[in-house]
Amino acid sequence: MHTFITTRYSNHPEDVKNYDTGKLRDHFLIESLFVNDQINCVYTLNDRLIVGGIHPVSKAITLETVDQLKASYFLERREIGIINVGAATTIEVDGIPYQVSHKEALYIGQGAKEVLFHPAQSGETYLYFNSAPAHKHFPTKKVGVDDAEVVTLGSLENSNHRTIYKLLVNSVVPTCQLQMGMTELKPGSVWNTMPAHTHDRRMEAYFYFDLAADQAVCHYMGQAEETRHIWMKNNQAVISPPWSIHSGAGTSNYTFIWGMAGENLDYGDMDTIAPTALK
């Protein structure tokens, strides 16, 4: 076995109000995603999303089933979205190779039996993934930055000039419930997802990268009237329950990957909260 997985349970917002810094980090922060020749992941009971990292170094790594799934293979009742945050590499799906470059995505639908992740020929392979339960098969599809829906929002004056790449959304690739994309902040901008919002119909996970080793991001969570924060470093992820806001501000610009699962595939289904209403 080369897969390391832990389970995180759902949290009631009234309970979270009583968490100290350590307990917040234990429940929501995923600190170590990339371990040599391992798949490292968390199974969260928030919409049963799996959040993980894959780092093949000396050999190819197979996507193997885990006890939490009680399935004969990982994608028997699941779909998975993978975004390459390292060097260009090859991912094989049932014997078919897909060349996935830096910041490109690969969607693999329910029913794929053998998925193999290869080390990069030059540089290091770092693959970030989200996996959600699926009730129907959709075909495997690679999505590059040029294939994505692209939206630029915010302004440098408000410190949130950013470009959003909608990679694995239903207008680009058909999925059961999984949605993933990437947001790049321009130099001089630090705020993401502001104004903040919630969406009770979906949970979300954020993965922060492209952040210098001596910089950090403060991720904001919790209910709008009583927020909490978690300080995060490069290549770390955080779980956002449906009742929680999800926003962040860094000590420099950065990129983050957002992934969602839940009730619908409506990207615009959100309840926005004005900055002046946050407490």
List keywords for this structure.
279 residues; 2 helices; Jelly Rolls; 43% strand; seven-stranded antiparallel sheet; 4-deoxy-L-threo-5-hexosulose-uronate ketol-isomerase activity; seven-stranded mixed sheet; mainly beta
Strand order of the largest sheet: 1-3-4-11-6-9-12
Strand/helix succession: EHHEEEEEEEEEEEEEEEEEEEEEEE
The name of the CATH superfamily reads Jelly Rolls
Rg value: 18 Å
Q: Helix/strand-derived class? A: mainly beta
User: Number of DSSP strands?
Assistant: 24
In CATH's first tier, which class applies? Mainly Beta
| Count of DSSP H/I helices | 2
Give the domain tally: 1
Q: What does the average pLDDT come to?
A: 97
Helix and strand topology:
Layout (H helix, E strand, L loop, with lengths): L2 E6 L4 H4 L4 H8 E2 L8 E6 L5 E5 L6 E2 L15 E7 L4 E5 L2 E5 L4 E4 L6 E3 L9 E7 L7 E3 L5 E5 L8 E7 L10 E7 L5 E2 L3 E3 L3 E8 L7 E7 L2 E7 L3 E5 L6 E4 L4 E8 L8 E3 L6
Parallel strand pairs: 1-3
Antiparallel strand pairs: 2-21, 3-4, 4-11, 5-10, 6-9, 6-11, 7-8, 7-10, 9-12, 13-14, 14-15, 15-23, 16-22, 17-24, 18-21, 18-23, 19-20, 19-22
Structure explained in plain terms:
This is 4-deoxy-L-threo-5-hexosulose-uronate ketol-isomerase. Its EC number is 5.3.1.17. InterPro entries: KduI, KduI/IolB_isomerase, KduI_N, RmlC-like_jellyroll, RmlC_Cupin_sf. The chain has 279 residues and is mostly beta strands. 43% of the residues are buried. Helices cover 4% and strands 43% of the residues. The chain has one domain: Sandwich (Jelly Rolls), CATH 2.60.120. It is globular. A hairpin with a 2-residue loop joins strand 7 (89-93) and strand 8 (96-100). It starts with a strand and ends in a 6-residue tail after the last strand.
